[in-house]
Each structure stands twice: as C-alpha cells, then as structure tokens.
Amino acid sequence: MLHLDFNSISESILGPKWQKLFNTHWPAYRAWFQSKGAATNPDLHTSVAQLRHYMPEMMPTYERMCELAGHDPIAARFLTGWQPPAYISGCSQVVTQNPPQLVRNYDYHPNLSEGTLLHSAWNGKAVMATGDCLWGVVDGINADGLVASLTFGGRKVVGKGFGIPFILRYVLEFCSTVDEAVAALQRVPSHMAYNIMLLDKSGAHKMLQIAPDQAVVVTDALVSTNHQHKVDWPEHAQFSKTVERERYLLEMLATANLEAEDMAQTFLHPPLYARRFNEGFGTIYTAVYRPAEGYLELRWPGKTLRQSFDGFQEGITTVHYSESVQAIPVPATQMGTPAAATPAYVPTETDEYWTQYGQAWATGDPTVMAKNVAQSILSATGKADDAQLAKLLELFTSETKKRGQIPWEMLADLWDEPVAS
User: Fold this and answer.
1) What is the phi/psi pair of residue 82, to 5°?
2) What number of CA atoms fall less than 13 Å from residue 417's CA on the CB side?
3) Considering the entire predicted model, what is its pTM?
4) Continuous segment of H or E residues that includes residue 369
5) Cα(149)–Cα(165) distance, rounded to whole angstroms?
6) H helix or E strand, kind and range, residue 127
7) Going by DSSP bridges, is the β-strand pair 223-224/214-219 parallel, antiparallel, or unpaired?
8) DSSP 162
9) Is 87 exposed, middle or buried (CB count within 10 Å of its CB: 0-12, 13-18, 19+)?
10) Under a CB-based contact definition with an 8 Å cutoff, are residues 102 and 149 in contact?
C-alpha cells in the first residue's frame, strides 16, 4: 500500500526548516532536473534575469534560498523557476458561494508528491500552501483571503515561461484580491497550459486559462478540470476523464439547495476521487479553502487536517493510499441531504486486491511495477507505439533492474520534448 507523509511546517522567515526541506527533497529534484538537460539550458544567468524581470519582488527571497542551498549553481538555476522540464498532473476544482469556498482534488502519484504544507511569511504576508518544487505552490491561501489553485490545462504545448507553482507562489506573496492576481497572471508567462482558479474572501472569483502560445483567457467559470474550452489532447482527455468530471461538477452546481459541505464531500467519491495511483492518476488530497474564515482543510477518506493562520499546528499526517477499494458514489439526487449522511469510507477486503500492480508491489519486484507505470504514461500520451519512446521504456525498465527500485526522475523522459514558442 502506498503512503505519503504530509509535513505541516511553520517558518515565517526562510531559515533552518526550509533548509531541511531542501536537503530532503533536492537529490530527487536534482536528478529529475538534470535528466532533461535543464540545469544549463537555459543557463543560470538567463534564468536569473527572467526572474528579476518578471518577479523582481521575489529576488531577496530567491537569494536567501540560494544561500540556504549552499550556493549550488544547479540549485540556483532550479530555484529561479524559469523553463523547468515539462510535467503534468490531473486535478478538479470548483468554487461555490455562501460562504465563499474553493474545493479541489490534486491527482498525481504519491511518490512524486512533495507532501508539504507550509505556513510562511517570507515577504510580510502570511501564506499557507501545499508545496511543489521547494518553494512553489499548487494551491494555497494568504492572510488577505486570496486563494489560488491550479489544474493542468490538457495541452502538450511547452514554451518559454516559469513553472506554474512558482507563479502561484508569487501571486500569494504579493497579491491581495482576485483583480490583483489576474493582473499578475496576465503579465508573468507560464511554460505550459494550466487552468487557474482564484477566489477571495469577498466571494469574487475568476478562472484563467493560461498557455505559452496564447493570451490569457479570463472567465467567470466556477469549474475547471483538465482541458481548456475544448479538448486539445484526446488521448489525455480519455485517460483522465476530464470532460466527465467537468460535466459531473456542473450537474452538482445545478443541484437545488446544494450546501458547501455537500460539495466538499463529493470530492471524496468517484468520479472526482481517483485511485489509479499506479497510472499516475490518484487523488493525493482534497483541499477545502474558506477564505472568509481564514482556514483550509486537507481531506482524505476518514481523515481531515484543518489549519488556520491563527492556529497552525506543525506535525506529520501520514496518509495511506489503496489501489482498489469499494467506493460509494454520491448521486446528485442525494446531495441535498446533510453532509453527515454521506457514508464514511471503511476499509474492506478489496484494499489488498491482487492486481498485477499489487503483486509486483507486494513481492518487491519493482521491474514489473515500473513497466506498468511507464506503459500507462505512454498510453496516456498516445505514444504507446512510438519506437523512440519504446526504447525509453526499455531503458526505464533496465535502470529499475540495476537500482532495485523505480527511477522516478526518469519519468520525465517519457514526455514529449518541449517545443519552443
């Protein structure tokens, strides 16, 4: 059974706690970063110049991080956030009102997730956010009541720009309202396509569709999954069920007398909650943001972690993930009932179901498991029959045999090479 330790960390000013976080995760990030040749392409000088140009307010923070990282030039290049290798995740998100609330599922593989919930005030504004890439944000809230969250936009285009987690960090560090966040997101380029949901404590919201090859599209949409306006990547859409998830959320919003808690609970059930972890598409957590009340919750079946600006508690929350369980969907016709009526997940015999993946995991044979993971990714990209990627699959499996464990950083090589825009 897979598991992930979520580490809740509170450190207002960059110091020893962030340095420990860096020392823990940097070896894996470095291997991934170097595997795609990103350490020197573009070079450090160019990358720092782009950070200074687009996000000058972040420079003191960046310089302090480089100091804590021991002035490692590869780390310095990575920490600029400029032009990282391509990466994708799943995710669904929705905004509701009365009270203002943003709910999202983060869908990925636990072994590729940082598992960090960081409470900080690096530039004077308190921020609580789930982390990625050591200082990036996949979703978070600041003390002014601004919430920002991302979903992958479902397009293969890769251009010149910053990794989106770095941009969202900038937004939460220096913006207070949705309007300010929109302006920042229109100005700072993203290297890939994403849907960004914004909500503030007044209830104002926007959903932005951003991509490196087109102007930012600002909408009033309340829902986003993994496509932009229309499906651009059919194979990924079929794999991730992005259209089906979007349709389900829109139907939920149309339900009469829908309560905020009802919406939050439905994210813990299919079709929104996914358990395809061996295919890189399992729900790592459900996040519930209440900006007017100043708190967030990370939820899992049978477990909730609540954090607030006034009462943030450090500690480890260990989460276990099952490949196959008896899930209990919640029909839209029942969502008008109190949230307490939603059955809680109870472990069943199917938790240890002996699928091919489960057999590989239980017997300690990472080679079979690695092949399953790689094959799933190739199928999702629509390149399962591509000769070049078939060679990468062979290399991936061979490297697994040598190490005795899956070389997760090599998953980057199963992705199409970036195309300059």
Assistant:
1) -85, 130
2) 5
3) 0.79
4) helix 366-380
5) 9
6) strand 127-132
7) unpaired
8) B
9) buried
10) yes
Burial of residue 346 (number of CB atoms within 10 Å: 0-12, 13-18, 19+): exposed
Q: 354 is written with which tokens? A: 């002996």
Residue 207 to residue 218: CA distance in whole angstroms:
6
Length of the chain: 421
How many CB atoms within 10 Å of residue 199?
A: 30
How do the pLDDT tens digits run along the chain, 421 residues long? 799 999 999 999 999 999 999 999 999 999 999 998 999 999 999 999 999 999 999 999 999 999 999 999 999 999 999 999 998 888 999 999 999 999 999 999 999 999 999 999 999 999 999 999 999 999 999 999 999 999 999 999 999 999 999 999 999 999 999 999 999 999 999 999 999 999 999 999 999 999 999 999 999 999 999 999 999 999 999 999 999 999 999 999 999 899 999 999 999 999 999 999 888 789 999 999 999 999 999 999 999 999 999 999 999 999 999 876 544 444 444 444 333 333 333 333 333 322 343 334 333 445 555 565 566 555 555 555 566 666 666 676 666 655 545 555 555 555 544 444 3
DSSP character string of 383-397: -TT-HHHHHHHHHHH
Token pair for residue 385?
């029959």
The position carrying tokens 């938790």 is 351
8 A C-beta contact, residue 382 and residue 416: no
Q: How many C-beta neighbours within 10 Å does residue 293 have?
A: 13
CA–CA distance, 276 with 380 (Å, rounded to integer): 13
Q: Which uninterrupted H or E stretch holds 348? A: none
Output the CATH code of domain 92-352.
3.60.60.10
- Please name the amino acid found at residue 232: D
* Other beta carbons within 10 Å of 220: 8
**With contact defined as beta carbons under 8 Å apart, do 288 and 264 qualify?**
yes
SS3 annotation, 190-202: ECCCEEEEEEECC
Indicate the domain borders of the chain: 10-79, 92-352, 356-413
Give me the residue label for tokens 């993994």. 226
Q: Which residue, among 254, 26, 222, 3, has the nearest Cα to 111 in the 3D structure?
A: 3
CB count within 10 Å of CB 404 equals: 10
